[in-house]
Write a structure and sequence with these properties.
Number of strands: 3
Strand order of the largest sheet: 1-2-3
Strand content: under 5%
Number of helices: 15
Shape: globular
Largest sheet: 3 strands, antiparallel
Order of helices and strands: HHHHEEEHHHHHHHHHHH
Number of domains: 2
Helix content: 55-70%
Distance between the termini: 11 Å
Amino acid sequence: FLILFTFGQIMMFSSSLSISFAHNGDDATAMMRKHIVITGLAFIAAILIARFVKLDWLRSDWFRHALYLLVTVLLVLVTFKGNTVNGARRWLDLKIFTIQPSEAAKVGAILWLALELEYRKKQMARKKDQWRDPVQRFWKQGWHLLALPACKMLVWFFLIIIQPHLSAAIIFTAIVILMFLLASLKKSVWIAGFIQLVSVILVVAVLVLIIMPSITGLSNSEFISKRFAHVFRRIDTYQNPNEASDDSIRQIKQAQIALGSGGLTGVGIGRSVQKMNWLPEAHNDYILAIIGEELGFVGTSLVLLLFIALLIFGFRIALGAKSRTGFMIAGGYTFLLVMQALINFCVAVNLLPASGISLPFFSSGGTANAFFSLAAGMVLLISKWDQKDNALIRELGIEKTGRVTVVNEAGFLRDRTGTGG
């Protein structure tokens, strides 16, 4: 985490110099200063979470309800009050800073589902004797353990998709499915819950199809075509690049030029040509192309290896968790960070159409990186407070007394005196 964070800030500073100079009165460091304040505070918050917050504190009913309510309110606010950019409302201006609620939903869904499913499993265990009829028990368990939590997540999914933010909605869906898989639900729960969930979705879908034309004044097909026009354009550009306009394929071409120009070791940090307004979003979605140009194949391989290390050690921490909740939290957040990075890699090398998915800890966007830092902080929390055996603790260098360590080999933890790294 520490290595990824530090490396990311260096590359963010390098890639943002040109655009910051152009948009901030010849001040090349203005964007980075604002970025580092938010991400720096988030980094400190992540370490404090790992140091002081105990998993048991998060298991309270009020925290679980407050988390769900907070994310829901943010998603509703951005739907009606969000800043409109390219026909999409994804950003919410909170005066002090702007926030992308879809990022809060991705991070919040993991923690909320882990806590909610643990709570519901305990409730089902208490009520087991009340449902002696096997048919009643079959449907009740399916509803309470799968269908109802999934329906609550569908509310967030709907609020994300109408922004519209399709790529975030896809990642969100993958996260929710993963969390239910990590929960180790019985086969009977899956069957009953799936039937009930599909029934709810079909009823809601029919109602939406009936009501939407009267609200929008457009037919459903016209509304979808208009609302998701940018998505269809990106997919068409990806599938038929030879028929696309020069503006449509500019990012793809310039990203390929940047990656090709870097060669094996790159042209050197700060010496990128493509970031000089040639490559759009060079400091954001396409920062990997700038890393490839400035640090070459070695630099991009290093980024990939760091995320592979994060995947390995994150899941080892998850497997070492003594509770199912800890396992779900560590596994879920590790999956989110690595999957987001993998999608960004694929977009940068043109294996996927442009999606607007940032590279965790590297891309510009203070609040997005703040959420990613909090996600890493939760993995640290599980590594510290929820490990079931001394073997993993000794191997990773984590002290049971609770002293935060920030990584040794994984980039996850440091020694207990705070002098290592």
